[in-house]
């Protein structure tokens, strides 16, 4: 069978490596905002995880270019690897905002968004783990990702609304608005990955 099964396992294993790495980044972001005793050190650790994610993405693209037979459509493999990479990029960008803007203390809303990011990443990982298995379980996890994105959108919207009501310093308002929006965009990227996975389910049903 032209070595089809080993190729499938390689792609699926790399995607699992990628989601495990994303969860590590999300855990570090949550730990960063929950404790906030060494934000610079935590941001550096997140950056290291982001670099590792870039290496895995590179490996997937290289394998894609060299493989004659692929377990999923080539465009789906490429789109999924790019979407997963984007999640980690936004986690890294979120952590960077706390350092760039010299944040003294994260808000409860920032902590809640970091928690939702982690849960979203775990749901994406659960869906990715089912590639090559029972596709109906992928759909279940994607529904969870969509619900979490809606929750993050609500938290972000209410946090920004409160900012405009209560924050008197325009500089602080601008800083926190961008932090909230960057955190929320990480959940948008999780939803993008879920949408690609749902498309895979439909194609392979």
UniProtKB/TrEMBL annotation:
<dbReference type="InterPro" id="IPR038078">
    <property type="entry name" value="PhoU-like_sf"/>
</dbReference>
<dbReference type="Pfam" id="PF01865">
    <property type="entry name" value="PhoU_div"/>
</dbReference>
<dbReference type="InterPro" id="IPR018445">
    <property type="entry name" value="Put_Phosphate_transp_reg"/>
</dbReference>
<protein>
    <submittedName>
        <fullName>Phosphate transport regulator</fullName>
    </submittedName>
</protein>
<dbReference type="InterPro" id="IPR052912">
    <property type="entry name" value="UPF0111_domain"/>
</dbReference>
<comment type="similarity">
    <text>Belongs to the UPF0111 family.</text>
</comment>
